[in-house]
Amino acid sequence: MDLSLLSRLNEIRAARGAAILITDLETGHQRLIQSGQDCTGDPLETELTKRFHSGKSGTIETKTGNHFLTVSVPSPRLVLIGAVHITQALVPMAELAGFDVTVIDPRTAFATEDRFPSATLKADWPEEVLKNEPLDAYTALAAVTHDPKIDDFPLQAALKAGCFYVGALGSRKTHGKRLDRLRDNGVTETDLARIEAPIGQDIGAASPAEIAVAILGSVIKALRKPGTV
Fold it and tell me: What is the pLDDT averaged over residues 17-29?
């Protein structure tokens, strides 16, 4: 492998970016495509898009020959704002599904290791946690505290960072007030439309565990089938 390509790939990985190394199996020629790079007109454009979403490497056959795509994407993260009952049910489900999970809640009565023994627990304000652990495009964020003082900042940060999923718990009335606050903070209508609220798939969920299933369904769908309704 070309050392300059390897160096660039390592830089992308270190920054939690995604890239695909394309190897022409006939000539051995290699090139690197980074997620977000303009691939318009690339003969592999459609396949590259699919692979960035699936994360799967493999050989493809094209009119120009056979290529091997080495796909490197960061592990998907799920950041949960609020150490509530829904979160307790959601954490083990998300971990089973392969997500790295972080729970953030400044309320130390809720954010305890007894309640969240396996998750990365941050008993601090989201503003402080996200300074050192910034969000990115391979992170999903779900805000479930019902408290604007806790939820609003990470929601805005998630939209700015381009998180692949952003959801918030609350009724339509509650969400309407939330949208007004975010507008006042300069969030655009395009970004506001990205927030899923009410949160989760519409499966008639009632209990905390059922709501957790609905949220995880939305997160996985956003990761694997972005842009679908």
Answer: 92
pLDDT at 3: 82
> Domain residues for 40?
3-72
Pair (109, 202) in one structural domain: yes
Concatenated DSSP letters of 18-85: -EEEEEETTT--EEEEETTS--TT-TTHHHHHHHHHH---EEEEETTEEEEEEEE-PPPEEEEE--SH
Over the Cα atoms of the chain, what is R_g? 20
Residues 48, 82, single domain; the answer is: no
User: For residues 1 and 23, what is the distance between their CA atoms, to the nearest angstrom?
Assistant: 9
DSSP state of 116: -
Domain match, 115 and 178 both? yes
d(CA 85, CA 13): 34
pLDDT digits (tens, 9 = 90+) for 165-192: 999 999 999 999 999 999 999 999 999 9
Give the residue carrying structure tokens 């007004």. Answer: 180
Helix axes 85-96, 208-224, angle to 10 degrees: 40
pLDDT higher than 60, residue 229: no
Task: Give the pLDDT confidence of 59-91 residue by residue, as tens digits.
Answer: 998 887 899 999 998 999 999 999 999 999 999
